[in-house]
Amino acid sequence: MRELEVSDKNELSKVLSDPESMQYYPHSFSEEEVENWIRWNIENYRKYKHGLWAVILEEDGKFIGDCGITMQNIENEIVPEIGFHINREYWNKGYATEAAFACKEYAFNVLRYPSIFSYTTTKNVPSLKVAEKIGMQFFKFIEKNSEKQIVQVAYNNATMTSIFD
Fold first, then answer.
1. Beta pairing class for 2-3 and 52-56
2. What is the DSSP string of 120-159?
């Protein structure tokens, strides 16, 4: 994985502008929204020293999506969250799980976060399963974007505390 760049717009559009890939979002992204997404991510690197990375296949260098750690507002707390988007032709091949697991390890071992979160709509079963596969567990239900969302959490075994405590 590497940091997202403005030059990734065309490849990232294949994911973020695809209605099926974005079915759990309010809508798929326009070209301008993809550019804004990348600029938001670049700003995250300036502000937090982390953000989303481009997910690149090792065997052929193909860009297949994004994954990383962004700071999200969950019930008025800013928390680190693992998020990802994978091009649908690469679904069900373990890439989201592999990338999300690497992000969790990075959050704990490099960034030293005591906990890491993931949230999604209750309908997004594939993302919920990825979170479970990387060791996350149910934390709570919240309302976000006018939908019921499930928040999952993993704790750093070294600290065993939550930033909500």
1. antiparallel
2. EETT-HHHHHHHHHTT-EEEEEEEETTEEEEEEEEE-TTT
The secondary structure element, H or E, covering residue 55 is strand 52-56
Q: What SS3 class is residue 15?
A: helix
pLDDT > 50? residue 59: yes
Q: How many domains does the chain have?
A: 1
pLDDT tens per residue, range 97-150: 999 999 999 999 999 999 999 999 999 999 999 999 999 999 999 998 788 999
**Spatial distance between the Cα atoms of 124 and 90, rounded to a whole number of angstroms:** 17
- 43 by Cβ neighbours in 10 Å (0-12 / 13-18 / 19+) ranks as exposed
pTM > 0.85: yes
Domain ranges, residue 125: 2-155
